[in-house]
């Protein structure tokens, strides 16, 4: 786990995450891309995955041209075998993972009255938003335990704290993620591993949840990335378990 400042100097290093290895799911666009960019700028080597090979290549190329050390891999986070290959490739090419950001998520068909939803829509949202966190975390945690430390950041939502009409499936996935994250934190803190959740409100990305909103009154992907960086740089003797992120202006 990285420290904000160097011992006895009071100076903030230019690359405070130098030497850290991060894995970010859903990292080729939107919030995930902003997180990959932020962690790379802070000095971390970053592996990230997605399903769109063209977006993966273009994101990796842009970051590499800026001097970042990145690894872009196509993976479906709802498939256990693909997750195992993703983690193995990351550790082989970059090293042991010290920061995991479970960012991949979807609204999919998750919005609308529950009586109008299908099993396929339920499975799509639950598998992406909840089961994937279980799969990826389970694959990464043994290495963190062996190294006696690490940071796991799960990107949740304020929908995991609040309910609203038409949000049954999406809210259920994020409430489940809140419960999973809290239990993970208790399971892993004795191993020096910190588990945190970030709960953003509406974010201006391709996925806008319940529909378009005024861009001046929602969060940006970079706002979420800043919160991830804050968690990666927190002091060694404590951890921030949950961050609620809201825009200054009310929608």
What can you see in these coordinates?
- The chain is α/β, with parallel strands linked by helices.
- The chain has a single domain, classed as 3-Layer(aba) Sandwich (Rossmann fold).
- 40% of the residues lie in helices and 15% in strands.
- The chain is built from six helices and seven strands; from the N terminus they run βαβαβαβαβαβαβ.
- The protein has helices spanning 30-41, 53-65, 80-93, 119-147, 168-188, 221-232, and strands at 21-24, 45-50, 70-74, 99-102, 150-155, 193-200, 242-245.
- Strands 3-2-1-4-5-6-7 form a seven-stranded parallel beta sheet, with helices on both faces.
- Helix 6 links the parallel strand 6 (193-200) and strand 7.
- The protein is globular.
- Residues 1-9 have low confidence and may be disordered.
